[in-house]
What does this fold into?
Amino acid sequence: MQRVADIALPFLNLHAGTARCLSLGMGSARVWTQITDGSWKMSATSVAICARDILCTGLMLVAPMGGVLISLAVRMGEHTYNLAIHLSNKEWKEFGKELLRLSSTTIYLGSILTANAALLFVSITTQALFELGASFGAYNEGKWPETLSNLLLAAIRLHGARPHYSRAKRHYFGKELTQSDAIRLLEKAEELKKQNPDQPIEFEKLLESENYSNTLQNIDYATEKRLSSLRFTHIQFKDCNFTEAEIEKAVFDTCRFARDDFTAARIEDTRFDRCLFDQSKWVDAIVQRTLFSHCAMRDAVFYRADLNDVRFSHTNLHRACFNDSTQKNVRWNNSNLQESIFLGAKTQNCTIKDSDLTNAALCDAEESLQLKGENLLGKTKPVVSITWEFAHEKHYAKIICDKLRQNGAMVLKYQGTPEGIDEDALSLEVTEGLSRLQSEGLGDARSLGEALLLQAKPESQIHQLFQTAAKIDRYTDAVMLPGGHDIEPELYGATREEDTYTESSFRKSLLEMGVLKHAETADKKVMGICRGAQMINTYYGGTLNQDVEDHMGVFQEIYPTP
It folds into this structure.
């Protein structure tokens, strides 16, 4: 019976679902045996083994992938320990075998974490080689059933490794897809859809048929706006442009998106499974009836996005930004929303369930969001607000943001040029207000900007900016003002010079002055860099030299004194 089980179990483990059930059953049996016979408390090692089995079995129930990763990590530790024993005893043959086992486990772990085709191929091939070795050993012992079963198992594994080999080969040696090639393949897909309208077209097979690499770089899908009824599997999109693209009834499985832009894209009835989004941008995107499952979307930007019937399941949205987005029937299940931002988000019938909301800034949306299950809540970091341009992120602002996070802050980004402001009306209010202040004086204010804010009428654009600043200040502990264009000379009583380059309106300057005013009132810490330092100076009544020659692009060294 034992020989039958030894032969059958490896074949059963070839099926993922069966393998999970077997792991759960065998793990539970080990734990039960250790507890009932008392063997778990015989030594410190026995306690550790029992604790490991309990942890892995429990994770198999609630988070199968976590159980697999813990099991592999423990196995690597065992291999390393055995290596040390064989090395100390100078058992070189056993040392070599154990080193191969450790290498195989490490490659297998890497293939799981990265889904890299080359690692998957090497991992499966290595397992097949172990099966061949076991078959040879069984043959020498005259065990024909074990010999044949191991040979068959090796053949099955090698057959399963073929698509990974093909994918890895095309990844490293395949032709690079150009813009014209992409258009031609999409046209070919449209022809195939006419023949099979109910079946999604496998885009990877189109690439494979002409030996194109699975890495698609610098492709502009905005040119061919519509991507419908397509299935993308194991494809890497790098610096591709999906701006204003229309994606409908598509499936993206185990794809990687590196710095891809989905601004103003329209995505409907689409599914993203196990996809990696690296700093993806969804500004003004419309996403409807779409699922993101087991995706990594760290630092994703959904600024002003329209999300309707969207589900995020087991998805990492660490530091994702949903500022000023419209959300209806959105579900976040078992997802990571740490340090995510919902400033100005409008939500309707939206639910967050069993997710991590540590240091998340739900802001006003907290009142309308439905929190269900066991969500992790709490604030462990100080919140520092920073002016941001979501549509055109500034490199220097990102550097400052990273430094703040490295020093333990949660960064609350807010749009420096807020929507809903009538720029013409604002410019007129500023012009008339400055004229009035010149004749009537500043009153209790210290600067022209502060006076404009304090004397603004309730229905004015300036007052609306002041109220927006108050909302930002409500959720922050400190203020950071980064660099940017020149401050409008009118705000410090100067005449604009020829080389002065400012924003298109006074929105950003007056908003930042409003943030400074509220921070000062609440006695909060403030720091300014470049333009930010100039803004602090202007807010307190200082003036500026509008142009400093040979200063642009020059790095200034700072030597702080004790």
